[in-house]
Specification:
This protein is an all-alpha fold. It has helices spanning 2-22, 33-66, 73-94, 100-123, 125-130, 155-176, 188-226, 242-255, 257-260, 277-281, 284-293, 319-337. It has 2 domains: 36-179 and 198-226; 242-337, Cytochrome Bc1 Complex, Chain D, domain 2, CATH 1.10.760. 65% of the residues lie in helices and 0% in strands.
Length: 338
């Protein structure tokens, strides 16, 4: 009898212990290492998206405001999709919005498609033939301001990389993000205050660092452009042969036609080059210097208020290209005067 009672007590004790284990609060259970790894990836991916969006946004403004590179139509479409991402990622992190990946994907996926189309438009005659009027006004979308790695890396290529990084970060955030355990009311403020302050500090540090770096770079660029430029050697005088004029027309249609018009008539606030005194009476050296260096929007000789990019936005423009396009523009100016 005594043995039976002892066995019953032992069974009751084991049952009570098992019941205690079943009723242990989730907050007191140690999370698995795999869960901690996934949560770390999900949290880190959001900051990767934040950094990428702000670098892309600040970089595009640096190119247009400091370097004077005029955005084309397709560039503006990509900006429309990228700029909101800089704010959405910051607000999503600060508010711990678990649906932030939806907003990121809604903008980053079409942005990646637009950047891919723009890149193919630059590099493929077939794509330009499918949509020949994509950039009928303004800077041609086929112009390459950047020409890195033999022309493989251009501005839309960099935008495509940025959009893809944001897409991957949003997916990683969604797959790795787990619901946070509910904390007791007595310690909710204490537990929430420290992570929130850390998020705010990190978000502010990323944004301030990126914006500050591009502001410093822009200031240095503007000061360098404002300094006196060394005169470039004049181009040798050549006869405007039919071959040279044909080459000049080809260069003009890629680099100049978007702002100066097919026949030099100008567009928007840009005056026609057909009545340009500089083209009719200026020297080849003056014209070559203007084409090489471009002209900033705030230049006292600029009456249009629009910046003229160096080399018409063609990074690989050679002296032969400049010589040819000057000859062709002189022919346009002469024809306009006649």
């Amino acid at each position: 009898m005594l043995v039976s009672q002892m066995k019953d007590r032992q069974v009751d004790t084991d049952a009570e212990r098992a019941d205690d284990v079943r009723h242990v609060p989730d907050d007191d259970l140690e999370p698995l290492a795999e869960n901690r790894l996934f949560q770390t990836i999900g949290q880190t991916s959001r900051y990767v998206a934040l950094l990428t969006a702000w670098v892309a946004t600040s970089g595009s403004l640096y190119m247009s405001e400091a370097l004077g590179w005029i955005p084309c139509v397709l560039c503006w479409y990509q900006r429309i999709l990228m700029y909101p991402l800089a704010l959405i990622t910051a607000l999503g992190i600060l508010t711990s919005d678990r649906r932030m990946h939806r907003y990121l994907l809604a903008l980053a996926v079409p942005g990646a498609g637009m950047s891919l189309y723009h890149y193919l438009y630059q590099k493929s005659d077939f794509v330009r033939g499918l949509f020949p009027s994509s950039c009928a006004v303004g800077v041609p979308c086929s112009a390459d301001y950047l020409n890195w790695l033999g022309g493989a890396v251009t501005i839309p290529f960099l935008a495509l990389v940025a959009f893809i990084v944001i897409v991957l970060a949003a997916i990683a955030s969604r797959l790795a993000d787990e619901p946070e355990p509910e904390a007791p009311e007595t310690s909710a403020m204490t537990r929430a205050s420290q992570p929130r302050l850390a998020r705010v500090a990190l978000v502010v540090a990323i944004i301030a660092g990126v914006v500050g770096a591009f502001l410093l770079a822009g200031s240095a660029t503007v000061q360098g452009q404002s300094a006196a430029q060394a005169p470039t050697p004049p181009l040798p005088a050549v006869t405007a042969s039919p071959a040279l004029l044909a080459k000049g027309k080809a260069v003009y249609e890629v680099a100049c036609i978007g702002c100066h018009g097919p026949a030099g008539e100008g567009v928007a606030s840009i005056r026609p080059i057909t009545n340009s005194a500089l083209l009719r009476t200026g020297s080849d050296a003056e014209l070559a210097q203007l084409v090489r260096a471009g002209r900033r929007a705030n230049d006292p000789h600029n009456v249009s208020g629009l910046a003229m990019p160096a080399g018409g936005g063609i990074a690989g423009m050679t002296d032969e290209d400049i010589r040819a396009v000057i000859a062709y523009m002189r022919r346009l100016a002469t024809a306009g005067a006649d």
